[in-house]
Amino acid sequence: MDEIGIICILPDEVQNYQRELRQKMATQFDLDGIINPMVPAHITLKYRFPVENLDELEQEIQEFSLSQSKTKWLLRGFSHFKNADDYVIFMDVIPSAEARKAHASFLDRLRKIGWVQWGQHDNANLHYHVTLSAQGITSKNFEAVWLFVNQQEKPNFGAFFDNLSLVQITEYSRSVYKTYWFQN
Asked: How confident is residue 71, by pLDDT bands cut at 50, 70 and 90?
């Protein structure tokens, strides 16, 4: 395993919504790379980092999952940001105060593992989001794609922060390696 990321996988209704909207966007704007995401609809909680000791990492995640109660996310509307040369269009996520606190607690626990690497977005003050497209949207087509997305039915979902899922990242693929469900 090269690298790992940690996410919260979202329920089927969100996954179906994301998949259908991605299909519409791909068809309308020839964005083939967004049709079949390697990882289901999710909220990223810890961005990718090299793995030195998977057993140690899994033990911390399992212990946290056994003690953590599920908390709420709300998915409402769309937003976007510019990332390097591409634009990212996403569903906006509004965390409950409890979800943000649980995420902060989880990151504090991970910080005890000395070899885990940290980036600027690895914190609980994130603008949480569920990506719709991060490939193929450039300054040339952004306005048209953004207008199209905003003409679609807006997401309006309640979901739970009720799992931590490890995403295995290699040079050529990403896949869910293991999911830990909160027990409380």
From this structure: very high
CATH number where 69 lies: 3.90.1140.10
* pLDDT of 36 above 70: no
**Which residue in 127, 167, 118 sits closest to 9, CA to CA?**
167
How many domains are contained in the chain?
A: 1
99 falls in which pLDDT band (50, 70, 90)?
very high
Instruction: Quote the tokens at residue 44.
Output: 């990223």
pTM across the whole model: 0.93
**100: domain range?**
3-181
Handedness of CA 142, 144, 150, 155 (dihedral sign): negative
Q: Per-residue DSSP letters for 120-182?
A: TT-STT---EEEEE-SS--TTTHHHHHHHHHTSPPPEEEEEE-EEEEEEE-SS-EEEEEEEE-
Exposed / middle / buried, residue 143 (Cβ in 10 Å: 0-12, 13-18, 19+): exposed
